[in-house]
């Protein structure tokens, strides 16, 4: 690139100087001719002849060339030979006759200017282009040398830089190849210069860190899922296999019970899958596009009303402690699910007689909501663990539930940008979420106490079944 | 499916000319027998289509099953179907377009859309297109049947009426009063709403998920405990002279209002 531009610059300069020189010479020629013609008009051809001869004799250094012809073609003066045929400019090569002074004359390239004088005479004035050509040669040589130098240097420098870049890019390519082969420990080399390649390398490394951690999660999750799903599938298989082994002796009742049991197991499996799908959907961030203001106060009140009898049936006391309208920005359905999960967990994992409180509080910019109980709680060390999918504490291994409740809570909290906290409620467990308050409080959706006809579309209708309902 | 295992303790359904209702109805007391309801099934998966077909036949419906959306539209538009069960994903014409086409032809059959897609905006899309209900796969046959029956038109109990009566029970929505034999029932707001739904579908089975949807707007049925505890309280309140509750738990299906309590 650089070399190319250098060449262009040089060419322009060269042409420019050449042109200038030529123009100057012509100007000079014209001026000279004008003077001489004037002289011929003022003093006659003879005077002009004399003047010309004088100039030729006196001309030193750079020779001047003249020729004066009468109208009839007779040469009156001058050191040129050719009879001019027309006016104007011309360029000719001329070799003067040998003289004693100059036995071997060289040829000259002349720029000639021909004009008419008084009494129709012809005047030719000439200058040697030699000088100009000389200058051009020198200039050309200088430019060529400079150009060569520039091109050489730029090529060398370019090659050096390129080589280094190539080397770095090559290094990155080979790392990338190794990574895509599965070696996730590799990272892009960072030179520390802060340039673009380094920035790319840093970004890619960050990406790789995240991917490695996600993959580790997925691997572990995959193992957990496989393990947890094998149990119900195994049980299912056992039931059906027993049926298969004793078909003839099985009574209708036994068959019925066996099929019922099988259906139960399948339902449970479907629930797990549905929960997993929901978590996956939340993790993908997709619901964010449907976010709207949600007023948590009526939402929580409805839930407490719904679950109060359920809690009561297990001798729990379920209470609500709700401050005024506090809207957050989010997905109503998912938020309902979060609190349903927390309430059900509390009911399920606390002994009879426990008190469960659903609360909502907040200041201008922060909304906090949660569920706390006064049961046995969860050991602080296990707080992180229980948020993992399928993670269940040993003592609750055999209770209902699929171990995905808190995992969903965590995913939804993350989706909403809410901070999820598990704390020891001394005694008991307190789970809370802290949201940023929704910007416009007045636009929150009104609480959705059961409307008259819920199957027709209103924004809170969800008549879809996730899994076979009510079979048992 | 729906073999002899998951049945309420009643005799299997018999299909006769005069009473083509199924074993789910509350018996012959108190209401007219229905003519066989005609249902159009539009489902491309053969196994599912046959399953739905046989299930509905057993329940006393007259069925017509096709596997292509366009064929389905042509049939639906001819009219005469009380209910249409259509899958969302169909070759030739997808379910949503099917519903729109049928509705724009001014066909008023009840439409239930079946789908594996269960997210809110998809359900709303289906309902907005004109479907009356939206059911996720897999589902229990009982669920489909209960919902089909809930949608069928019974002139005796208009869906929008503000005052309902069924045997000794009465519901006045304008005055927000529920009574049994004239005596007011003391119901919580939730129980009142549950009672209203049962009254609107009196004599028919209302499934747990239908109640979860219409009262609490829960679309996940894992929370059946919520329905069960509230219904159990309601059942305790809706009884005549301390006898059995007028709300029957139909095991395997849901709940139903009876015309009168069974002899003890």
Q: Which characteristics define this entry?
A:
heterodimer, A: 472 residues, alpha+beta, Beta-Lactamase, Helix Hairpins, Heat Shock Protein 90, five-stranded mixed beta sheet, 16% strand, rod-shaped, B: alpha/beta, Arc Repressor Mutant, subunit A, 2 domains, five-stranded parallel beta sheet, four-stranded antiparallel beta sheet, 8 helices, elongated, disordered N terminus
Give your account of this protein's structure.
The complex is a heterodimer of chains A (472) and B (264). Chain A has 472 residues and is α+β, with helices and mostly antiparallel strands. Chain A folds into 3 domains: 1-94 and 106-184, 2-Layer Sandwich (Beta-Lactamase), CATH 3.30.450; 196-280, Signal transduction histidine kinase, dimerisation/phosphotransfer (DHp) domain (Helix Hairpins); 288-443, 2-Layer Sandwich (Heat Shock Protein 90), CATH 3.30.565. Chain A contains 8 helices and 12 strands. Chain A has helices at 2-58, 130-180, 196-245, 252-283, 296-313, 332-349, 383-386, 405-415; strands at residues 64-69, 75-78, 88-94, 108-116, 122-128, 292-295, 317-322, 327-330, 355-362, 366-373, 419-424, 429-436. The two termini of chain A are 80 Å apart. Mean pLDDT of chain A is 80; it is low at 441-472. Chain B has 264 residues and is an alpha/beta fold. Chain B folds into 2 domains: 38-151, 3-Layer(aba) Sandwich (Rossmann fold), CATH 3.40.50; 163-257, Orthogonal Bundle (Arc Repressor Mutant, subunit A), CATH 1.10.10. Chain B contains 8 helices and 12 strands. Chain B has a 5-stranded parallel sheet, sandwiched between helices. In chain B, strands 6-7-8-9 form a 4-stranded antiparallel sheet, covered by helices on one side. Chain B is elongated. The relative contact order of chain B is 0.12. The interface between A and B is large, with 46 and 54 residues.
């Amino acid at each position: 690139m650089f070399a190319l531009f250098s060449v262009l610059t040089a060419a322009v300069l060269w042409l420019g100087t050449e042109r200038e020189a030529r123009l100057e010479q012509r100007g000079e020629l014209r001026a000279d001719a004008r003077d001489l013609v004037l002289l011929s008009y003022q003093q006659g051809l003879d005077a002009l002849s004399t003047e010309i001869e004088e100039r030729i004799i006196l001309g030193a250094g750079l020779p001047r060339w003249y020729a004066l012809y009468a109208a009839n073609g007779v040469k009156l003066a001058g050191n040129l030979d050719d009879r001019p045929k027309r006016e104007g400019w011309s360029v000719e090569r001329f070799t003067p006759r040998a003289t004693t002074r100059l036995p071997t004359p060289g040829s000259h390239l002349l720029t000639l200017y021909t004009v008419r004088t008084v009494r129709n005479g012809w005047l030719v004035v000439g200058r040697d282009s030699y000088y100009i050509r000389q200058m051009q040669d020198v200039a050309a040589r200088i430019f060529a040398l400079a150009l060569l130098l520039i091109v050489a240097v730029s090529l060398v420098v370019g090659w050096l830089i390129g080589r280094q870049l190539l080397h770095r890019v090559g290094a990155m390519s080979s790392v990338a190849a190794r990574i895509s082969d599965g070696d996730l420990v590799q990272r892009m080399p960072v030179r520390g210069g802060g340039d673009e390649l380094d920035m790319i390398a840093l970004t890619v490394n960050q990406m790789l860190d995240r991917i490695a951690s996600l993959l580790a999660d997925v691997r572990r999750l995959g193992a957990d899922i496989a393990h947890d799903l094998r149990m119900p599938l195994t049980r299912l298989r056992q039931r059906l296999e027993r049926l298969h082994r004793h078909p003839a002796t099985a009574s209708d009742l036994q068959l019925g019970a066996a099929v019922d049991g099988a259906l139960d197991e399948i339902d449970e499996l479907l629930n797990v899958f549905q929960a997993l799908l929901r978590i996956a959907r939340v993790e993908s961030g997709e619901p964010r596009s449907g976010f709207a203001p949600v007023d948590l106060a009526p939402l929580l009140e409805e839930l407490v009303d719904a679950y109060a009898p359920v809690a009561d049936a297990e001798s729990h006391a379920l209470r609500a402690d709700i401050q005024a309208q506090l809207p957050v920005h989010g997905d109503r359905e998912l938020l309902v699910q979060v609190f349903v999960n927390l309430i059900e967990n509390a009911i399920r994992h606390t002994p009879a007689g426990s008190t469960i409180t659903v609360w909502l509080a907040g200041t201008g910019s922060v909304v906090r909501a949660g569920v706390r109980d006064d049961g046995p709680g969860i050991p602080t060390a296990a707080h992180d663990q229980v948020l993992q999918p399928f993670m269940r504490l040993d003592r609750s291994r055999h209770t209902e539930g699929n171990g995905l409740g808190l995992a969903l809570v965590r995913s939804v909290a993350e989706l909403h940008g809410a901070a999820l906290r598990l704390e020891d409620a001394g005694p008991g467990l307190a789970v809370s979420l802290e949201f940023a308050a929704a910007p416009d409080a007045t636009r929150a959706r009104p609480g959705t106490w059961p409307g008259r006809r819920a199957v027709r579309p209103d924004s809170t209708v969800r008549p879809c079944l996730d899994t076979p309902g009510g079979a048992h | 499916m729906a073999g002899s295992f998951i049945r309420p303790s009643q005799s299997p359904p018999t299909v006769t000319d005069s009473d083509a209702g199924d074993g789910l109805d509350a018996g012959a007391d108190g209401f007219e027998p229905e003519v066989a309801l005609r249902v159009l099934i539009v489902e491309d998966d053969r196994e599912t289509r046959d399953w739905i077909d046989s299930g509905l036949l057993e329940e006393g419906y007259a069925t017509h099953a096709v596997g292509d959306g366009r064929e389905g539209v042509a049939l639906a538009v001819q009219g005469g179907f009380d209910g249409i069960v259509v899958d969302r994903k169909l070759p030739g014409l997808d379910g949503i377009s099917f519903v729109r086409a049928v509705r724009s032809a001014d066909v008023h059959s009840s439409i239930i859309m079946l789908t594996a897609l269960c997210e809110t905006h998809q359900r709303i899309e289906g309902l907005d297109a004109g479907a009356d209900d939206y059911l996720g796969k897999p589902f229990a046959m009982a669920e489909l049947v209960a919902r089909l029956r809930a949608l069928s038109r019974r002139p005796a109990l208009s869906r929008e009426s503000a005052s309902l009566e069924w045997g000794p029970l009465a519901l006045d929505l304008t005055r927000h009063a529920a009574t049994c034999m004239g005596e007011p029932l003391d119901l919580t707001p939730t129980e009142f709403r549950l009672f209203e739904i049962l009254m609107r579908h009196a004599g028919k089975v209302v499934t747990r998920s239908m109640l979860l949807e219409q009262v609490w707007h829960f679309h996940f049925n894992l929370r059946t405990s919520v329905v069960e505890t509230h219904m159990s309280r309601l059942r305790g309140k809706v009884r005549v002279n301390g006898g059995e509750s007028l709300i029957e738990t139909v095991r395997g299906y849901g709940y139903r209002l009876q015309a009168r309590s069974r002899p003890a």
